[in-house]
């Protein structure tokens, strides 16, 4: 052979997007090192059909022609294709003398290529594409040499058997999908609605390259906007996927390819995959599925309790590239197109049964504490990590139920799951999302037991307080009180608890007279039953005294509350319980009212430290509120830094906007105190930023006022 030998397919040369990290990995694994000893380098790329394995390998080959003397593409899905391609390579390398017999001797040509690979000193790159059977490579795999080899396969074990490096190829990441869809469709975004529609399309495809190609061709052929394409997908995705024009090199649509994979599955794999579609696809913990406390009536799924059979079934689905197993987290993952195709094949009875089973599975893995009550925020914080794992699956079930109009067989279990999710989100300082779940739970079940309904109304009231909507909170608390009175009578401890919450709402409304009236009612009930159980009543009394300007009464009530719990100030400071951080925060506010800035700052700093342990270093309304009062204890010093932090956080949750607006307003106040004129451009600019942020806050109960009090009302008066 003289010169360079290149044998690459023209028909696979499609636009290439979004695989920079993977290309870098190929380069690091395969590129020859000039001064290093010669060795064979091999990498296996695996992933399911249409994910872009061949395109990635071809892109590496195309961009590495200056590195190799020989670059050859060998289709390897069948023995016939493999041998024929190697025979073509033998001729291209000049290993065939031109005689007719030699030209037709494919197996002889295979041996000639193998011998050449074992003896050549020329750098070469071979791509064995779409290998289905590893044994087909036995007769051609070189024993030595200084070449590089890529093996692509749907089967992870096939891809990895001979490779020194393995690359699992998945769908396009979220941050590149929109750009790829736009490039392939050739359509710019007319407005934000079109951009949102494009994002929704990308979400439906799961970032699966083949699906994105199909959708973009569907749009181009029909002259459709992103919104119109999304409407078509939502209405009849199967028709879109099966009928859309597809580049010939793919051979079949993604929908049909996926269906073909499903048809060859064992009964166990089919049953497991049919259940997995009811979970959020990114990460499905195996322990959810194998939980022995879940009642599985479907005999087809009872194998999940047998660890050996379960592992074998998962391996089958992984080998067919229908799911991916994440070993580190012992979780399963599947792509959107696989979910869609699997779901579309389910019968109505299987759909309903699997939805109800998924509800039971998630419920069994969700450590809900919402019925336990609790004096303040955070009583379930020890189980937050487990809740965070289950929450995406609850959200997925909610989406499926609303889209397909499912009716859960066990309505009480479904309601409990929704209310538990709402409680967790409230405790995690996401009251806007929490409100949606609690309202869904109440709307889903109009026949809740009275005690459960009262607890749910109380929870919704707590959420409204965190949203600075005390009037809405009061309405929920009053409903809960009426329910408790009807169940337990007017003088029960449960009624006293609700009186505490109503007093809390009135304190937030700055109606301290009404608040004290309910506090006295609660106190009387506790004295008649068990005075040692009135610690919550005492904390509400302390807060109301603070709001009324009675620092001495607030301090006395707070210390008595701690005494009833068998705790001292020192004990409180040493605690990491979020509800105790609220007590320390209240103490700091009392010191502020007394004019004791030093002790106030010390107490608030301790509350901050306690809250950081639970909520993180610098995120969330309670930390923002604590920082704000710390700046007040320091005479406004540090407000600029708080503003910077809140500006970065504001886009994450709507709850932060109120804290951001308040901080901008008080930053302007500090500028004036430091000598700036009220009508100076700098002060006006900061005030305008406060106005803009405030205008984005929805469902406010107070009129806009350009005063300190007006901006203080944007946030709860007291965040426990």
Automatic annotation (TrEMBL):
It comes from the Eukaryota. InterPro entries: DUF7779 (IPR056681), NB-ARC (IPR002182), P-loop_NTPase (IPR027417), TPR-like_helical_dom_sf (IPR011990), TPR_rpt (IPR019734). Gene3D superfamilies: P-loop containing nucleotide triphosphate hydrolases, Tetratricopeptide repeat domain. One of its GO terms (molecular function) is hydrolase activity. Residues 23-164 form the NB-ARC domain. Keywords: Hydrolase. Residues 262-349 form the DUF7779 domain. This is P-loop containing nucleoside triphosphate hydrolase protein. It comes from Chaetomidium leptoderma.
